[in-house]
């Protein structure tokens, strides 16, 4: 009986592996055949092609290096915490609630001062590690900003979860937070008032700005497969010496100032900031800051950009930016073709802004600057290889929350 069971398990594993490899191979053939339409220029970037953008939109998604770590597993509900092993880049070591209990949200209501057991806020402020899940679809309208405690994961898989139409998420002076698979949109500023941040502490807050996610003086953070849109301030802010962060597989849309990395031009402590931005869709209706960087380092890799209104990547205060393997589609506006924007008029030519193997469509172009290496210098565990830019539409096709069903691969 044991031998028969082992044979069945092995056969099932081989079947799953074969299906995955067949899908990978078929997608690669399609992508590889499209490569013949591109050629490299002297800057090691793809030149424009006369073919319309629609020719490069895939019929099926291709799993990127993060998604291939977990999405093919039909029993994901039995080991949700395995997701914590799948991050890449600077936020690789974010454990979230990997070593804690499962906490189930059953109540969409909110009390900023005395949260009830079963609500999202109750789980988010606890002192011990927790992996937070949801027992049903829900829309949560917070009455004040949700202040995350360390070693927490918010995992929306298996339900349609929205945080909307009120203040949203603050990650301040904590570490090891993972937010995965939820929608955060239409966020509003919070009024001054009392907010509980731990089981033992209630503090008077001055009010939040209306960011979807504000990361403030925090480390080891991973934001993955979220939908973010239409908030009063930014969609994601990374400020005040925050570092070790990965922002991946998210879908951004319908917003002005999308992502800010760095507090202001005088806050030099942001020199320690290191952020990986990978496999995201910067979709329609976005204006600028995808991201906008000050002082620190940003590895912007394998993202899909759909017709920004002003610019895609900007910065000031001498940040280092490596744009690698991205898929840039410029808007039709002839004054907005440039991917990059320096927020100064002079003394920027020494800044290390590099483009490597990016693909530019509709006359998009990147203005490089600086000398010397701009490599991310990842540790072995953080390191990953960028996919060719022509494959980016396929590996970002499932950006945003995924409709995962128990017992099936996502």
TrEMBL record:
GO MF annotation, one: pectate lyase activity
Catalyzed reaction equations: Eliminative cleavage of (1->4)-alpha-D-galacturonan to give oligosaccharides with 4-deoxy-alpha-D-galact-4-enuronosyl groups at their non-reducing ends
A Pfam family matched in the record: Pectate_lyase_4
Pectate lyase domain residues: 137-334
Keyword Calcium carried by entry: yes
Keyword set, alphabetical order: Calcium, Cell wall, Lyase, Metal-binding, Secreted, Signal
Protein name: Pectate lyase
EC number: 4.2.2.2
EC primary class: lyase
Signal peptide: 1-27
Assigned protein family: Belongs to the polysaccharide lyase 1 family.
Keyword Metal-binding attributed: yes
């Amino acid at each position: 009986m044991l031998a028969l069971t082992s044979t069945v398990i092995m056969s099932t594993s081989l079947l799953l592996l074969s299906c995955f490899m067949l899908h990978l191979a078929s997608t690669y053939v399609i992508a590889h055949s499209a490569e013949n339409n591109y050629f490299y220029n002297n800057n090691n970037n793809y030149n424009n092609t006369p073919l319309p953008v629609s020719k490069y939109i895939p019929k099926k998604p291709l799993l990127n290096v993060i998604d291939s770590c977990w999405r093919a597993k039909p029993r994901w509900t039995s080991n949700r915490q395995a997701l914590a092993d799948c991050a890449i880049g600077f936020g690789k070591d974010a454990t979230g609630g990997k070593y804690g209990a499962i906490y189930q949200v059953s109540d969409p209501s909110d009390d900023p001062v005395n949260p009830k057991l079963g609500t999202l806020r109750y789980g988010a402020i606890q002192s011990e590690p927790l992996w937070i899940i949801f027992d049903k679809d829900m829309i949560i309208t917070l009455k004040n900003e949700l202040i995350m405690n360390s070693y927490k994961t918010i995992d929306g898989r298996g339900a349609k979860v929205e945080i909307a139409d009120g203040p949203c998420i603050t990650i301040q002076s904590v570490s090891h937070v993972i937010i995965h698979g939820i929608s955060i949109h239409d966020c509003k500023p919070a009024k001054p008032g009392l907010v509980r941040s731990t089981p033992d502490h209630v503090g008077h807050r001055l009010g939040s700005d209306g960011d979807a996610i504000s990361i403030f003086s925090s480390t080891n953070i991973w934001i993955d497969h979220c939908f973010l849109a239409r908030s009063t301030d930014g969609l994601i802010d990374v400020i005040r010496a925050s570092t070790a962060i990965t922002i991946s597989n998210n879908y951004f849309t319908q917003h002005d100032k999308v992502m800010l990395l760095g507090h202001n031009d005088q806050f030099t402590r942001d020199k320690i900031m290191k952020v990986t931005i990978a496999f995201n869709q910067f979709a329609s209706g976005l204006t600028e800051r995808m991201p906008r960087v000050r002082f620190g380092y940003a590895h912007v890799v394998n993202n899909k950009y759909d017709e920004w209104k002003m610019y895609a990547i900007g910065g000031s205060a001498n940040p280092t930016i490596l744009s690698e393997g991205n898929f840039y589609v410029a808007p039709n506006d002839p004054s907005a073709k440039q991917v990059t924007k320096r927020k100064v008029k002079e003394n920027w030519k020494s800044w290390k802004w590099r483009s490597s193997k990016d693909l530019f469509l509709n006359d998009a172009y990147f203005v490089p600057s600086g000398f010397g290496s701009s490599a991310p210098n990842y540790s072995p565990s953080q390191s990953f290889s960028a996919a060719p830019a022509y494959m980016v539409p396929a590996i970002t096709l499932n950006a945003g929350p995924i409709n995962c069903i128990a017992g099936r691969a996502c």
